[in-house]
Recover the amino acids of this structure.
């Protein structure tokens, strides 16, 4: 179980005269989160995702964004994006009501258009409203901002993993043959990105489990480079099957949860359990290098 972090962020939206939208965020585009933000905007306005441009600015040009990390960015900044979209829709409803000569409470934004609640066939599409608002007296450009704040309650996630390993009893070398990770992801805005985050986390966990470790001698680190600090490369990582269990959170728009960090943790225990299942030895320290595994095997003989 992973509780996930919660911090605040802000975004800014500009609606352009051709019906396209520009979203300005301060979040770094880790793992393709800009795609997820664009999907949120497209969903809210009922427009093609190709009509949404997401700009990741710096601290001089973009609204404040909290740290960009694997288990928080889509959930935290995505909430700000969702709220900015609601502001835009409020403005569109107000202006459409003036044009249709009705009270604002008589109209609603639904599936890419502002329509009369009592007569849904009468309405104005998003692109038409945005285009005409630049020229109509008293209208002008449509801009909006949205903010998210630290959540008052956690949005925990749960992860289950399984792995097949092969252990060479003569050398102690462990080869991970296959791995599967199931996670309570909440609604997966972009399943491909979510699955990729899970696979990357498992790959990192494989490194922690089998090869990554600091070697000190008299207080001096002896493996300070990536030549000596052994991180996994492609041949070390098997196909990682991902299973997305989309149980929405009640604390966020669309039920988004965090993803990126949680799958790292159970990988270590999963591989340790698989080694025990294969050769009957229990390792309790990391990394489980060939030397450590071989010593355990010899000690159990």
């Amino acid at each position: 179980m992973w509780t996930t972090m919660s911090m605040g962020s802000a975004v800014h939206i500009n609606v352009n005269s051709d019906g396209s939208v520009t979203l300005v965020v301060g979040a770094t585009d880790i793992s393709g989160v800009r795609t997820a933000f664009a999907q949120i905007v497209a969903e809210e306005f009922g427009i093609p995702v190709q009509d949404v441009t997401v700009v990741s600015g710096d601290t001089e040009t973009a609204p404040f964004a909290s740290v960009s990390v694997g288990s928080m960015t889509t959930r935290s900044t995505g909430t700000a994006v969702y709220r900015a979209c609601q502001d835009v829709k409020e403005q569109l409803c107000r202006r459409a009501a003036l044009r249709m000569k009705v009270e604002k409470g008589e109209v609603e934004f639904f599936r890419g258009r502002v329509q009369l609640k009592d007569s849904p066939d009468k309405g104005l599409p998003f692109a038409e409203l945005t285009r005409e608002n630049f020229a109509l007296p008293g209208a002008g450009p449509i801009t909006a901002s949205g903010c998210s704040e630290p959540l008052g309650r956690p949005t925990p996630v749960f992860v289950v993993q399984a792995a097949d390993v092969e252990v060479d009893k003569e050398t102690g070398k462990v080869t991970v043959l296959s791995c599967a990770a199931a996670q309570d992801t909440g609604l997966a805005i972009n399943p491909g990105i979510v699955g990729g985050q899970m696979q990357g986390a498992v790959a990192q966990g494989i490194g922690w489990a089998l090869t990554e470790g600091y070697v000190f001698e008299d207080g001096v680190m002896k493996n300070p480079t990536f030549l000596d600090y052994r991180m996994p490369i492609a041949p070390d990582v098997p196909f990682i099957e991902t299973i997305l269990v989309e149980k929405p959170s009640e604390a966020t728009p669309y039920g988004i949860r965090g993803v990126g960090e949680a799958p790292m943790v159970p990988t270590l225990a999963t591989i340790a359990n698989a080694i025990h299942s294969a050769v009957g030895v229990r390792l309790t320290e990391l990394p489980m290098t060939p030397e450590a595994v071989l010593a355990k095997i010899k000690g159990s003989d």
Q: What stands out?
A: The mean pLDDT is 90.
